Amino acid sequence: MDILKRKKSSNRKIPNKSRIPGFGGSPMNLFTKIANAILIILFISVAYSMIFPGGDKPEQISLSQLSNDISSGLVQKVEVKGDALTITYNSTSTATSTPLLIKESKKEEGVALTQSLANYKVSEEALSKVNIDIGSDTGFSYWFMNLAPFLIPILLIGIFIWMLTRQMKGAGVQAMSFGQSKARIILPTDKKQRVTFADVAGSKEAKEELAEVVDFLKNPKKFLDIGAKIPKGILLMGAPGTGKTLLARAVAGEAGVAFFSISGSEFVEMFVGIGASRVRDLFKMAKNAAPSIIFIDEIDAVGRVRGGGMGGGNDEREQTLNQILVEMDGFEQNEKVIVMAATNRPDVLDPALLRPGRFDRRVIIDLPDRNDREAILKVHSKEKPFAEDVNLRTIAERTPGFSGADLFSLMNEGAILAAREGRQKVSQFDLIRSIEKVMMGPERKSHLLSTKEKEITAYHEAGHALVSSLLPYADPVHKISIIARGRAGGYTLHLPFEDRRLQSKKEFLDDIAVSLGGYVTEKMVFHDLTTGPSNDLQVSTALARDMVTKYGMSEKMGPIAFEGEGGRTMFGRGVNDKEYSDKINAEIDAEVYDIMNGNMKRAEKIITDHKKALNAIAKRLIETETIEREEFEKLLVANGIVPKKKEDIEHQS
Ligand code: ADP
Ligand code: ZN
Ligand code: MG
Questions:
Q1: pTM for the full predicted model
Q2: Is it the case that residue 390 has pLDDT exceeding 60?
Q3: For the structural domain made of 451-652, what CATH number should be given?
């Protein structure tokens, strides 16, 4: 039940991909580390008590007792180590398996054992039956046996602490290590990963800007000799998927220099203090490899406006950001290291980052226009065998608002479709089906509608389509479908004739009326409402609010932007900071209410006036489930409505 309008995506807020600082992997990591430590300590103590069983020490007997036992011929052997005596008794049972009885005693200090025994009146005869074994008391084993109980645990704990600290350091060191992902490095010798400007289609202006940087990296002397200052920092700005990362890599590939890349969110991820030290390591490495490029992807994750007052996690982010600034300021002019960064939220970046001498060169990457889209499709059609009917121009025409990444996945989906249906070549039909798949997710054929639901959905979509055909500034209908797709139950696909960068108030108003077309139709035809229009209502209400608070498109409120580009963000300013009073707030609400209601009336009038056409469209939808543009226009003509032509739209604007 969605209305699809890709062209708007450039107008909407670019989704904020960054994370809440301080809630990343670190706490989890710490917990698992502590748990591991406890486990290891437990293991050590168990192992220790097994090696040195404390419980059943041999019985201690007195020297007189020993003398008696020797006299009675019970003793087999006496081992002497220093003053300690270990006495082994004769086996009392015949079974060999029973262990010999062992007791311990002590002799008098400095007196020979035989002497002591003689003093206890042990006869020489009895003594001769005993095997007396005198071990050296200064030997290693003596000391070891005595000290081991103290030394071994200390040693184990020492090893354990050493391992732990090594692991912690490892986190910082990882940025240095090549394979371990943190800072990814692409060396100029790596031909497989090499990307050049030829791989980046369109983006002509951006490439021209960056060609200068390539020139400098290739031939720095030329610039330095003439005293030219080369920018240290270049900020690539553009919607997600417009090829920022790709362009940065292409610069390195063109210049043939090492490319160090790390994502902003990776800085914040680890223990406190690691972010800053990573920055230091990264810059050190890059300087060693100069000429080189450092690429910080999604810099908004660390580079947001500081002082948001979010507590602990924020400090870490600020330290990381400060370190980046410090490193960039520390660059010598002849350093031959260029820092590139990418963001899709330039509006939230800290002004300090944008100051001269830092990211003062900014390159904006727009969503591709029709020609660029065709070029991008061409780039990604390499290695894909096409059937004769493939026409990339048509595909480019049908995909306004698609980013490079969208087009890439469109091509890929097309190939997958062909392969799945066992064909050797990708056909035009595969690509056309992929457009919708990329836009809204796969068809959900299994999502079966009941007869009643099908009828409601058909009328709902017919309502959208009819209103949009009769309002002068609404985009023409390309396709209507009641097959569920992604999250939508059915959809009406509108595409503008041309790519547009500016949108007018009249267009917005017509858009809102079209959005409400489904709602109005359900209410009028079934005298009831479903949850179907909920998304339509959200989108159109948000648009109405933006008209009032951002674009100055309300007569009553006047030319005031009540909200900035990013809206009222939680981070930049306090949560409760309002820029306007409650009274103004109420007035905004009233104005939004008026816009919504006014457009509902307009939609209602159209539906009432063209009930016949509505019924015809809905009926056909129930039969065929999808209606393409040509067929739709025939239905309009049959009911006395003139379909929109390209010239009409151009004439108006
Ligand atoms: P971003 O960093 O701006 O989000 P990426 O550079 O990661 O976008 O682009 C994602 C993918 O989209 C690229 O790997 C590439 O396949 C494709 N792509 C984007 N823009 C272009 C372009 N201008 N030419 C060719 N391919 C592109
Ligand atoms: Zn709808
Ligand atoms: Mg990227």
A1: 0.61
A2: yes
A3: 1.20.58.760
